[in-house]
Q: What sequence folds into this?
C-alpha cells in the first residue's frame, strides 16, 4: 500500500468537503461559522499536503462506509483484459468532478434532446463522434450492448434470423433475444478468424433452411475472447451483396484503433465508452448511415389516450435521452486524447508483440490468440508452464497471482494458470518491459526454462 496515494485521495476528499460548504451556504457568501469551517478545512488540506509531501501519517482506507478506495491504477500495473481502454484520462476525471451531479448536462437543454444540447457542446460532440467512426449520424448509448439493442429492436421481428459469429459477445445474443430473434452462428474456423466467406456460407444456409435471408449481421471487429482482428471489410462486402444490414461491433476497437465504418462497409458501428474510449460506465456510441438513421433514430409516434400527449421530438430506441451527466461528459473530455491515441495504435501493437515475444521465451507458454499480435488483448495458454508449478504449489494457481502482486502487477484472473487473458493497452514501454521481465523472473524462480 502506497501511503502517498492514500494521502493524495485524502487531500482530494478534503477539497471536496471544502467545496461542499459552497453548496449549502447562501449564494451571497459565507456566514461567520462557515468562514470558520472554511478556514478549518483549508488547514486540513494543508496538513494533508504536508503529510503527502513527507510521505508520513495515517493512510485512509475508505471513500465512504463499506466503500474501499480503489488504488489499483495508481499502485499497480493493471493487465485486466476489459479495463485497459476504459481507464479515464485526467481530463475525464476532472470532468467527472465538475459534472458528477445527476442530470448535469441538462442546464441548458432547450429542445428536450440530449444530442441537441449546445452548452456543454454535446451536439458538436455527436457530429464529431459520427465522423470519428466514419459514419453519418451517431448517438451516445449506455454501453455497446444498448447500441446492439437499439438496432435489433428496430430491425428484428419475432423469429427473424440474425447472424453473429461463434466468437460473439453474450450481449449480442441478449440483444437478439429481447427482440425475439433467432441466432445463427457463423464459424470462425481453426484460426478463430471470421471471414466474409464464412458469413456468405452461413447466409446461404439460412436461406436454404428458412427460405428467407437473415435480417441482420452482427460481427465484431475485435473479439473479446482472442483479441483477434477479423475481416469485417470482407463481411461488409458480403452483407452488401445480399443487401443485409451489417452491424460492426467495435467494442474492443473504437477509441483504441482507427475504425472507419464506411470503409468497412458497415451500416452500423457500435463502440463502448467504458471498454475503449476512456469513459465512465455505462457509455458507448451507436453510429449509422443516412440510410439507416431514420429507422433506428426514428421519432416517437405514441400518444396518450386521455391527455393526447405525444413526444415526436423523442427517439424511442434511445428512450428519449441516454447519457445525461458524468458519463457523456467523461466521453467528451477524453475525446481529444482518444482521437490522438488511435493514431498511435501501431505502437500499442508493437508493445503487445514485444510482451508476447518475451512471454513466449518461457518454455511451455503459448499464445492462443493470433500471433504476431494485431491487438493488445491476448489469450495465453500456460498449462505447460505455470500450471505445472500450480499443481504442486500449496497455493495452487494462486501462486502466480501472489508472485505478480508482489511485483505490483494485478488484473490477471486470480488463481488461473491455465488459459487466461491480459491486455497491455495503454502501458508505457517502460511498464511493458517491466511486465515482461516480471514474468521471466517468476518463471526462473520456479525453475521453468527460459530460452
Ligand atoms: C465488452 C464487449 C461488449 C459489451 O460492451 P458494453 O459497452 O459493456 O455493453 C460487447 N461486445 C464485445 C466484443 C465486447 O468485448
A:
Amino acid at each position: 500500500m502506497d501511503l502517498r496515494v492514500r494521502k493524495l485521495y485524502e487531500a482530494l476528499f478534503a477539497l471536496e468537503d471544502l467545496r461542499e460548504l459552497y453548496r449549502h451556504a447562501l449564494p451571497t457568501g459565507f456566514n461567520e461559522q462557515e468562514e470558520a469551517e472554511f478556514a478549518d478545512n483549508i488547514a486540513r488540506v494543508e496538513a494533508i499536503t504536508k503529510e503527502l509531501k513527507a510521505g508520513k501519517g495515517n493512510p485512509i482506507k475508505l471513500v465512504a462506509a463499506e466503500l474501499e478506495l480503489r488504488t489499483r491504477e495508481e499502485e499497480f500495473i493493471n493487465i485486466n483484459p476489459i479495463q485497459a481502454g476504459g481507464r479515464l484520462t485526467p481530463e475525464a476525471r476532472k470532468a467527472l468532478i465538475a459534472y458528477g451531479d445527476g442530470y448535469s448536462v441538462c442546464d441548458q437543454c432547450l429542445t428536450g434532446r440530449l444530442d441537441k444540447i449546445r452548452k456543454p457542446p454535446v451536439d458538436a460532440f455527436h457530429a464529431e463522434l459520427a465522423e470519428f467512426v466514419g459514419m453519418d449520424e451517431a448517438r451516445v448509448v449506455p454501453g455497446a450492448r444498448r447500441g446492439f439493442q437499439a438496432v435489433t429492436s428496430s430491425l428484428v421481428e419475432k423469429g427473424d434470423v440474425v447472424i453473429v459469429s461463434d466468437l460473439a459477445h453474450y450481449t449480442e445474443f441478449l440483444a437478439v433475444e429481447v427482440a425475439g430473434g433467432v441466432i445463427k452462428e457463423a464459424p470462425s474456423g481453426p484460426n478463430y478468424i471470421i471471414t466474409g466467406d464464412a458469413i456468405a456460407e452461413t447466409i446461404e444456409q439460412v436461406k436454404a433452411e428458412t427460405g428467407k435471408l437473415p435480417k441482420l449481421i452482427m460481427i465484431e471487429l475485435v473479439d473479446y475472447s482472442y483479441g483477434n482482428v477479423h475481416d469485417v471489410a470482407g463481411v461488409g462486402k458480403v452483407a452488401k451483396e445480399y443487401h443485409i444490414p451489417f452491424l460492426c461491433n467495435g467494442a474492443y476497437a473504437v477509441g483504441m484503433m482507427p475504425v472507419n465504418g464506411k470503409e468497412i462497409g458497415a451500416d452500423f458501428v457500435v463502440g463502448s465508452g467504458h471498454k475503449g474510449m476512456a469513459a465512465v460506465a455505462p457509455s458507448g456510441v451507436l453510429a449509422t448511415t443516412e440510410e439507416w438513421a431514420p429507422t433506428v433514430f426514428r421519432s416517437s409516434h405514441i400518444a396518450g389516450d386521455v391527455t393526447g400527449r405525444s413526444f415526436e421530438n423523442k427517439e424511442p430506441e434511445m428512450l428519449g435521452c441516454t447519457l445525461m451527466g458524468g458519463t457523456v461528459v467523461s466521453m467528451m473530455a477524453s475525446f481529444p486524447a482518444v482521437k490522438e491515441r488511435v493514431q498511435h495504435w501501431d505502437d500499442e501493437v508493437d508493445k503487445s508483440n514485444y510482451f508476447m515475444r518475451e512471454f513466449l521465451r518461457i518454455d511451455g507458454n503459448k499464445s492462443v490468440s493470433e500471433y504476431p499480435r494485431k491487438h493488445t488483448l491476448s489469450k495465453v495458454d500456460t498449462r505447460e508452464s505455470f500450471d505445472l508449478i500450480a499443481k504442486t504449489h500449496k497455493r495452487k494457481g494462486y501462486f502466480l497471482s501472489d508472485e505478480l502482486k508482489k511485483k505490483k502487477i494485478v488484473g490477471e484472473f486470480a488463481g488461473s494458470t491455465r488459459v487466461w487473458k491480459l491486455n497491455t493497452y495503454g502501458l508505457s514501454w517502460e511498464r511493458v518491459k517491466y511486465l515482461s521481465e516480471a514474468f521471466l523472473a517468476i518463471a526462473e524462480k520456479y525453475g521453468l526454462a527460459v530460452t
